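Schema walk-through. Below, the input block comes first and the output block second. Nothing else is stored per chain. Lengths vary across the set, and this one has 472 residues.
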Amino acid sequence: MRFRLVVGLLVFTLSFSTPLTAVPRVWTDRDGRTLEAEFIRADPLNVVVRRSDGREFTLARARLSAADQVFLDSLATTPEVAPDWIAGLNEALGVRLFADDQLWDDEPGSVANRLRLPPESTTTGAESWRAYARPPLMMLGAPAYMLSLRSEEGRVVGFSIMFTNRGDAPVFAERTSRAPVSKAEVQAFQDELKRDFERLRARLGDLLPKTESDPTPAQRRAYPGNLAIFTVGEHELILQALPEQMLTLRVQPTARAAPPRLSDEQARQRMKARVTRRENGDVVIDRIPMVDQGPKGYCVPATFERMLRYAGIPADMYELAAWGGTNFGGGTSVSGLVDALERTVRRAGRKLEEVKVEAPSALTLARYIDEGRPVLWSLASTPEFNKLANVYSAERPADAAVLKKWAAERKKPSAGLSRDPQAGHLCLIIGYNKATGELAFSDSWGPQFAERWLPGASVQQASYGQLWVLGF
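--- output ---
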């Protein structure tokens, strides 16, 4: 009975990091083998420790030395985080994020409902909810501009709050002139970012005492800039301030609670399974997550996020915007972001491949769509182009026989379309119809823009000639 009580206390209290556990120590097993590492967590069977290089190891508890057993038992008396941390954190956030001490077993839809987040995207095995706050919400004592919740395979995998950031900040997002951003505006933004980071860090420290730990080398590589990490049970609260870019708070599973990553073969099979072949000849990848770029010029990073998440690679448009050198208020160099992302994509076991074709068409792009690989397409998204796409898509017949004749009457180049360099845009080509020569594309502007169609000739009129796909 006494053993069960000690174990129960140990599991509860060791799920929170403390100064004692954050100090590396030498662990020894019964065979005399040693490992210098800091304690992360424990259960009745195993102990998880982290080496200085960030690598984690799971040690069988029964095989540890007597000294290690004494050390583990001593942690059962470590002071607990205040039992009202859930109520305190929810109150400071202004939303009921936590219903209990385990977010990851909650039904995703119920979490979205209590957060009052509208749906953003629903595909097979993945859902997301997102809200842009205008005016911003006060959360933890700082203005928050965006809230996002994601789930995979029926379980919540992450919640994020975007605070001060160059894309949503009103001084930049609501500019009506093309005048360059002044040094004074940039400095004021930077000062606000630093101030809010310290404010949020102090507030979280008050709400979650003794849970902040020093970031590991791996965490510093993943989250550059100023960083504060709070670990509560199987939840990591990662506060990151990227200089001149953004301040964000992510709530995500610890390594132990995180879902497994997809292998290359699993990713290939999943993408192929997401291709739909319709009776009218349409071949479409119709299960790509939607990401709404919101009231800012983030079409490039938002579109990249959609493609990467579709392939099983975690991504966030705000981080992508920072890596791609997105300007204050929006505007990203496509080629610059491709170059910046190459290393990140390689690290995930993928690669960006340029599609070298004479012109985008149903024939030249069919092989990629058939494999379930959407094509990144750089184009001039002019008012004339979007008006044509909206009307064409709304009037497009569903019946195969009617569609073929209808599309043939509209396949010639359209008047008014151009490659205006001031209307640069990035979207995904997601489908084709060989019988009609049409192409389907998807914009990162919300669900109503998930699938639009145009004749191949119109696509070529607006195309900048830059196309990429994700490879293995």
